[in-house]
Design goal:
alpha+beta, five-stranded antiparallel β-sheet, 8 helices, 5 strands, 44% helix, disordered N terminus
């Protein structure tokens, strides 16, 4: 209990990014309640906590105060329903610095079909996408949560996405896809115009090497 209390002491937030190898994949395994059971070396290196500090802790040990609660609400609603969910998240390292990632999950069930584990992968997000699109949206959602609560933050998010005629995942996928296309980092865009759903699956599969 003393260790947990020590770990949950608020971290002093520093407005500086963690320096890390953004070609690497951050991986973790939690139980059905989000308690960490495994973290790979990349996770440990980026977040700054040692393995023994992370094991048995809720994954929100790295939650950044700049993150609107509604994003995690939507993420967990999808995961608990057995659906993978891609979210752009700002995390808080032990040092107080931040790092931005996009999520990807595998969901493990027992013989009765009950979810027992979530295997999370996280990769870096282009800074231009964060600065131009995600940070302004998240700041607005945070302001709404502070003034009116998560309920109205979610209503705003729904309206924002309805205006764009996209789901949240479709929206962030388009942001990253368009950025990478402009940077000419992927080689086969023309081939991927056949079938939007196939293109969508192919994009995240390539992004997370699945």
């Amino acid at each position: 209990m003393n260790q947990e209390n020590q770990l949950r002491t608020p971290v002093t937030v520093i407005d500086k990014e963690v320096t890390w190898d953004k070609t690497q994949v951050i991986m973790s395994k939690t139980n059905a309640f989000g308690i960490i059971e495994y973290a790979n070396e990349v996770f440990v290196d980026v977040c700054g906590y040692e393995d023994y500090e992370l094991m048995g802790q809720p994954h929100n040990i790295i939650r950044h105060p700049d993150m609107p609660k509604v994003i995690f609400k939507v993420l967990w609603e999808n995961l608990k329903n057995g659906k993978n969910f891609h979210a752009i998240v700002k995390n808080l390292a032990k040092s107080g610095r931040y790092y931005w990632v996009i999520t990807d999950f595998d969901i493990a069930r027992d013989e009765n079909g009950v979810i027992v584990n979530y295997f999370g992968r996280r990769q870096s997000v282009p800074q231009e996408v964060v600065a131009m699109h995600i940070e302004p949206l998240y700041k607005k959602l945070l302001q709404i949560e502070a003034a009116s609560g998560v309920e109205f933050s979610e209503k705003y998010l729904v309206g924002f996405l309805e205006e764009k005629k996209k789901s949240y995942v479709e929206y962030i996928k388009e942001l990253i896809y368009d950025h990478e296309k402009n940077q000419a980092k992927f080689a086969h865009y023309e081939e991927e115009q056949d079938g939007e759903e196939e293109e969508h699956r192919g994009f995240f599969g390539r992004l997370f090497n699945r």
